[in-house]
Amino acid sequence: MDVILVPGFWLDASSWDAVTPPLVAAGHRVHPVTLPGTEDGADLAAHAATGLRDWVDAVVAVVDGLEGPVVLVGHSGGGTVVHAVVDARPDRVARAVYVDSWPTGHGGVINDELPVVGHSVPLPAWEVFEDADLTDLDDALRERFRAVARPVPARVASDPQQLSDSPARYRVPVTVVACEFPSAELRQYLEGGAPMFAELATVEDVTYVDLPTGHWPQLTRPEDLGEVLRTEVDRTAS
Known about the structure:
alpha/beta, Rossmann fold, six-stranded parallel beta sheet, two-stranded antiparallel ribbon, 36% helix
């Protein structure tokens, strides 16, 4: 099965390198994505011109370039992109997997509180993040992350999510990989009517998988994340 891997902020396609071996070994075809404005050589002009919809359209183009059903995997802000792609191509997506993320509803934003420099959001100081974000991200991993981090176009962080009125996206099965907080806690928020989980609450088929670590499991537990994804793709393919 074709698996499209969408990174979160400050990461590119290479961030999935240590995650994909179990998927490849199982015979699946992986398509890690580098999103517009995070490519090598992307400049301030590119950042000024790039918004959330450009990220969504880039992933839709990958879907359209493949045959048959796909599994979409989105980490962090990439989950917002994945949900918009599900909305755009619900008949092409066999499953959406949200890695330490969840579907963002119409009008929601990824994170408009991140520090902006010009037209970009560079990787902030570690103090900006919650302690739970940084679980297992030791000094060596932090140094490695900062060395490869790519600034993100600022509009991507603050542009409102744009979704259709079609309910078809709610029929696409979803897997939520819970990292920072256990799935039991996420379900409590969902069942309590927390607005940020309103879109997820409408999805008809949701599976939760716990992978306890910080916000970047592709750095802190890549092999385990790869096995989780392989399991979800295998059962979707079958």
